Model the fold of this input.
Amino acid sequence: MANAKEKDSHVNSAFSSRKSKLLQQIVELDDLERSLINELQGDLPLVEKPFLAVADKIGSTEQEVIKCLQQLLDKGVITRFGPLFDISKGSGCFSLCALKVPESRISEVTEVVNSFTQVAHNYLRENEWNMWFVLACEDQKVLTETFDNILLQTQCRGINCPKEKEFFIGLYLPV
Done:
């Protein structure tokens, strides 16, 4: 997964990373960073001050937790911090999409694809279909229009793979 890229999608701009590349090297983490990454892989407490609750749990302060989280994003250790919504519980729909992007146009096409607010993730893969992203839209009509617009603006061949069945795979990677 060399040169993987992900679109930044953050609810709170205070927790945004502008890194375009996923960090793919060994990074030394301190105890606070390790504890914070491990804790935030679960549920964020639904309380008035969630970072204070996290800080209490890992033996830190709210300010240190917020600062550490932003530093992890800035360094590219983590690429996204934000909620995951089950769009199917509402009236929305989503689809896994792929493009065939010439190597010489990857940066240009990434910028175009990531400019769409409906793009939830965007990753490069070493494959003929080398750019994969998720579209999340309010309905199928908007999803189809958005995908068609991406194809038009990028002039790349694409495939649209709408979700047919939901699978949940829990993933916890302790550090």
About this structure: Helices lie at 31-40, 50-58, 62-75, 106-114, 140-154. Residues 23 and 77 are 6 Å apart (CA to CA).
